Amino acid sequence: MVSRVRVWLNRTYAENVFFMEQLRRNPSDRAVEIHATHGDADSPVLAAADTAAMEPEGLSPAAYVEYALDQCDRREIDVFVPRLHQDAIVGHRADFEAVGTKLLAPTPEAVAVFQDKATAYQAVEAVGVPVPPWWRVRSADELVVAVEQLEADGHKACFKPAAGAGGVGFRMITRAPFSMSHLNGFPSPYVQLDMVLDVLRNTDEDIDWLVMPRLEQPEVSVDCLTGPDSRIRMAIGRTKNGRRRGFTLDEAWLEPARLIAEGFGLHHLSNIQFRMYEDRPVLMDVNTRPAGGLHQLSLCGINAPWAAVQLALGEDPGDLVPPFLGQDYAVISAPRLVRTVSATADEVPEPTSQLAAVPATAPAEEPVSAADASAGAPAAATA
């Protein structure tokens, strides 16, 4: 009799309820039990899981690894899909394997490269993947230089944090004065340059931004599945153009994604995003974890979450080629049940080993699957 597979998703975004459903509806007809933990008692992933618990707050990355190892050991987790503190967790793959848990996550080297967008752009450009012009700025004066250069070349400037995920901190620069037009209708991602400069020159907070031209649609998110042997098993593009969504197998998008996924050790599931700069696709961002919209590949007859779990367990699913490309679609919101009784916090174990210190970072949030905001801005974040 084939045993059930027990999968844990730690503090993840709400859309992963669909990831969980795909695991249960796997084509192997294998029994799957899902454990979920979160910091928000009303997260839909807690209600969708077979077992759930609140995560303890305030743990350092090293302490969180101890907590995660204890979870995996006590709950007999076969496959762990880490999002929160992924950088600290992947450095202890051998410790997790010692308690019988496989990590569905990339190599530590890959996570380190793509945590910082400037480092990532330099790395992928060295292997032939095109990137947009960019400047790393840490002061008001550096921002002015970057914006003026972009505007001189006929581009609109935008900025975002050098580290982070989704649309958090993304803004587009305008020189138009603040007026009633900015107070009518929906909030805009545009910010006035003079206001930004005034804030930067009167704050004690440090900034670390990437400034680049506003990239045009379509946006293509290439979902990749790569084995521990660094050979890619799946690369399918999901297109976004305003409200309209679709799929593509165009090599203009897939070839650079394969170069990145295979060349940098992006094992298991990753998501590599491109947009247009002038007349060619350029890299926008690399996510070292499954995208929130991964489940949309089911419209192409693909169950990527289950194939990833198979790879993590050492069962090669072979190459995933969509039998068809689903028709264009739109994404809408829908109600989702939450737990009737809040999950309780799990006990935090006493440290059992001296883990390497990892700098603490605030958990980045995943963008909701909604139509892009006006003027090409990323959607708001949720988890």
Please tally the helical runs, counting DSSP H or I stretches of 4 or more residues.
11
Strand order of the biggest β-sheet: 3-2-1-4-5
- Helical percentage: 25-40%
Rg for CA atoms: 21 Å
Span between termini: 37 Å
The overall average pLDDT, rounded, is 89
Strand content: 15-25%
Report the principal-axis shape: globular
Low-confidence stretches: 352-383
Class inferred from helices and paired strands: alpha/beta
Largest beta-sheet characterization: 5 strands, parallel
Q: What order do the helices and strands follow?
A: EHEHEHEHHEHHEHEEEHEEEEHEEHEE
By DSSP, the count of extended strands is 17
Describe the SSE topology:
Layout: E1 5-9, H1 16-24, E2 32-38, H2 44-48, E3 51-54, H3 61-74, E4 79-81, H4 86-90, H5 93-98, E5 102-103, H6 108-115, H7 117-126, E6 135-137, H8 140-152, E7 157-161, E8 171-174, E9 190-192, H9 193-200, E10 209-213, E11 216-226, E12 232-241, E13 244-248, H10 251-263, E14 268-277, E15 280-287, H11 304-312, E16 366-367, E17 381-382
Parallel strand pairs: 1-2, 1-4, 2-3, 4-5, 8-9
Antiparallel strand pairs: 6-10, 7-8, 7-10, 11-12, 11-14, 12-13, 14-15, 16-17
Describe what you observe in this structure.
- The protein is an alpha/beta fold and 383 residues long.
- 26% of the residues lie in helices and 23% in strands.
- The chain has 11 helices and 17 strands.
- The protein has helices spanning 16-24, 44-48, 61-74, 86-90, 93-98, 108-115, 117-126, 140-152, 193-200, 251-263, 304-312, and strands at residues 5-9, 32-38, 51-54, 79-81, 102-103, 135-137, 157-161, 171-174, 190-192, 209-213, 216-226, 232-241, 244-248, 268-277, 280-287, 366-367, 381-382.
- The strands form 4 sheets. A 5-stranded parallel β-sheet has the order 3-2-1-4-5. Strands 6-10-7-8-9 form a 5-stranded mixed β-sheet. A 5-stranded antiparallel β-sheet has the order 13-12-11-14-15.
- Helix 1 packs across helix 11 and helix 8 packs antiparallel against helix 9 (193-200).
- It is globular.
- It starts with a strand and ends with a strand.
- Mean pLDDT is 89; it is low at 352-383.
